[in-house]
Design brief:
The protein is α/β, with parallel strands linked by helices and 418 residues long. The protein is 28% helix and 26% strand. The chain is built from 12 helices and 21 strands. It binds ligand LLP.
Length: 418
């Protein structure tokens, strides 16, 4: 469910007309709904209400500070994967004791920054990393709180690029090695074992893989206990899917219903790291039709947003629904919706049936709130889009559109060229 609906013939974000917002903020434009975002966050909070838990929003899905602040005010924690994301989370007011830090390649600087910030825990992905964290923590005279990210070897039945829980992936440590790694961690003087972490992939539309993975993790926790290693946190990662097209994704309530009976036999605190399921359908990308072009029996709708703004269709062949901002009664046509970038892979839809738009029309690319802006770039010298947050009938620019000067601000010309 989301709050981008038609009223009469115009698309609204909550109670604000998208067309009107664009008149002021231009295109390409990301628009987020305050109401949708809150509802999605609260759905997790309410679903897991009966069991001690921390919802750590995965910043990689969207790290706009205004959205993070909104979530932080509701009590959200954060799942970060870099020093930059940690910086964003802290800036937005997420308490350090609700921040978990994952990623296979944490640098020494990043580790020191996280230790000094006193985050909840590192989700550690290798023995090299474990030893590095131990060394840095020792230097700082602190104990580093950690979970080991285990790889439960479960197929998440999702796109290969966003599936992470199989043996062949670079993530985590193999389940069968987990005990050995925990024993290693237990021996390190500056490491404090707090939890077990797993994340099996993203856009998962069934509850079963989560249950299967949790069972393996719980068995590991029992095994650790018998070795004298006590676990406090079970971090389930993120990955709950959303409807982009026809797919039906479980509601957080269904996830909770499947998980809580298993975990309530124990005294853990559950951590969840949802990203997409909170922000994905809370955002759209609005773009303007620049040109229509027919060639070789193909019809192209050329818009002013490109793969630099939303790379998901190009990178994963991802489906995003495309709707006109003003309902259009034009004849149905089968079109490719493409951007202005010099790459054949720069498209938002291929062979899509749309009421043929006209030049100047606005189109809304739906479900673009997650991994949209956060994966955007300046490729082809393109300024990154502006972002707007709608609350009721009001809207707020939460990121200005970049300018050409922004694109060259950090560039240095060596003296010999002056
Ligand atoms: N926790 C960890 C350790 C993760 O690696 C991820 C996502 C999440 C949580 C959040 O997963 P979510 O709830 O959003 O599914 N760019 C891709 C998705 C990559 C996901 C990477 N990891 C896309 O646009 O589909």
């Amino acid at each position: 469910m989301h709050d981008f609906q038609y009223k009469k013939s115009g698309l609204y974000a909550e109670d604000a007309a998208v067309g009107k917002i664009v008149e002021q903020a231009g295109t390409p434009l990301y628009i987020y709904s305050h109401r949708t975002l809150l509802r999605h966050y609260k759905a997790f909070e309410e679903a897991f209400d009966g069991y001690p838990h921390v919802i750590c929003f995965a910043l990689k899905a969207n790290s706009n500070l205004a959205l993070l602040k909104l979530l932080a005010e509701e009590g959200s924690g954060a799942d970060v994967v870099s020093g930059g994301e940690l910086f964003f989370a802290l800036k937005a007011g997420v308490p350090a004791e609700k921040i978990v830090y994952a990623g296979v390649g944490k640098t020494e600087e990043e580790i020191a920054y996280a230790l000094k910030s006193r985050i909840l825990m590192f989700n550690v992905e290798s023995s090299d990393e474990l030893e590095t964290i131990d060394k840095i923590a020792g230097g700082l005279g602190v104990k580093a709180p950690i979970a080991l990210r285990v790889n439960p070897n479960i197929s998440a039945s999702t796109h290969p690029y966003i599936s992470t829980g199989l043996k062949k992936h670079k993530f985590g440590i193999p389940m069968e090695k987990a005990l050995e790694y925990y024993c290693l961690a237990d021996k390190l003087r500056n490491i404090k074992i707090l939890g077990i972490h797993k994340h099996i992939g993203s856009q998962i539309t069934k509850v079963a893989p989560f249950v299967e993975a949790l069972k393996k993790v719980l068995a590991l926790a029992e095994n650790l206990k018998s070795q004298g290693i006590e676990i406090k946190y079970i971090d389930m990662g993120g990955g709950l899917g959303i409807p982009y097209n026809e797919e039906v994704s479980p509601h957080p309530k269904e996830l909770a219903k499947a998980i809580i009976p298993l975990i309530k036999l124990y005294d853990f605190t559950l951590i969840l790291e949802p990203g997409r399921s909170i922000v994905g359908n809370a955002g759209i990308l609005v773009t303007k039709v620049l040109y229509l072009k027919k060639q070789h029996r193909k019809e192209f709708v050329i818009v002013d947003a490109g793969m630099n703004d939303l790379i998901r269709p190009s990178l994963y062949d991802a489906y995003h629904h495309i709707q006109p901002v003003r309902r259009n009664k034009g004849p149905l046509a089968v079109v490719d919706v493409v951007g202005p970038i010099c790459e054949s892979g720069d498209f938002f839809a291929k062979g899509r049936k749309l009421n043929r738009p006209q030049r100047g029309d606005l189109l809304a690319i739906m479900s673009a709130g997650a991994y949209g802006f956060s994966m955007s770039s300046n490729y082809n010298g393109r300024t990154r889009a502006a972002e707007v947050l709608v609350k009721g009938k009001d809207f707020f620019v939460i990121r200005e559109r970049e300018t050409y000067n922004d694109l060259i601000e950090d560039v240095k010309i060596p003296g010999f060229l002056k």
